[in-house]
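Morning!

As promised:
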Amino acid sequence: MSAHTQSLQELIDALSLLPGVGRKSATRMAFYLVRQPVEVAHKISFAISNARDRIVFCEICQNLCEISPCERCAHPVRDEDLLCVVESPQDLVAIEATHEFHGRFHVLHGAISPLDGITPADLKIRELVVRLSSGAFREVILATNPSVEGEATAAYLKRLIAPLGIAVTRIASGLPMGAQLEFADKATLGRSLLDRRPI
Amino acid sequence: MSAHTQSLQELIDALSLLPGVGRKSATRMAFYLVRQPVEVAHKISFAISNARDRIVFCEICQNLCEISPCERCAHPVRDEDLLCVVESPQDLVAIEATHEFHGRFHVLHGAISPLDGITPADLKIRELVVRLSSGAFREVILATNPSVEGEATAAYLKRLIAPLGIAVTRIASGLPMGAQLEFADKATLGRSLLDRRPI
């Protein structure tokens, strides 16, 4: 006799596909779901298939949206000639939340990572180059993560964009606001010294 | 402009309903799902609604099953007169995995917890009493958790079952196998002394 009834086992298997969800979490979620009112299970079920069915890449910025071009690309912005390149839609949301950037965005959907088999061809880089070729942009801000992959992607893009005569900048790295030097990691503190700025 | 497109925001909200899933995890799951092939999203979506639609309580043991009475209740067992009472279907699976129990099960679906508003009426206790009234059982093993709620539930059931003339036992508490006295918590070590057995 198997431990769980078939549809429950299938649900556990399906939930285990989610990122960060192991067998134990999936089992807990499955038991939770089958004990909820039918509407709750159906609501979650519908949200998953509906989102997957409706969401497409914006033909301009490559962000996820329901109607391409996305609301953000269709909207006029203050700095039409400024383009910010990010790894993911979540990064775009984080930058928007600062209210410090008023230009256009471009989402790469990842970073170059040979160890994970992610090459420039897997990212929305071709679309970026086509966009920049229009000559509409004065400056490109590379806002990929300050990680090995993010830095490698920024270096790759710098080499690719420089010949187009567009200024290329990189977001600053250094101590987070409110941090204490004493507890900062060496790499971050070292970078904050190298990138010191006049005040 | 909202941070996420509508169907994506609805998916994040829906996934946040899952136990142990906060807004950050839900966002990560949502972005993962909309980037998967359509079949993956549909598979998970279907598994959720299908399991919820098919699963019912077994009319005998109250465990979750697709056809009532469940496979386990329909199956002959070695100890027909022995009943093990557990809080949850997961606990039943854990006991089955020990291969030390060959009787019948009864699932309460929770434990008495006044602070969480869970009273005896919220558990499958009425069904347990009806089952025991048949006179088919010689002994009831109370295998609720050795927690405040589980102990309270066991004490409550003991008072309820004793008048029926059925032996009531409780699973042993004590040091886990392989544990070291030095690192055991006081409550567990104290219990292992109180419940010492002749060898």
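The helical segments of chain A are 6-15, 23-35, 38-54, 71-74, 89-98, 125-133, 148-161, 186-194.

Hope this helps with the figure draft.
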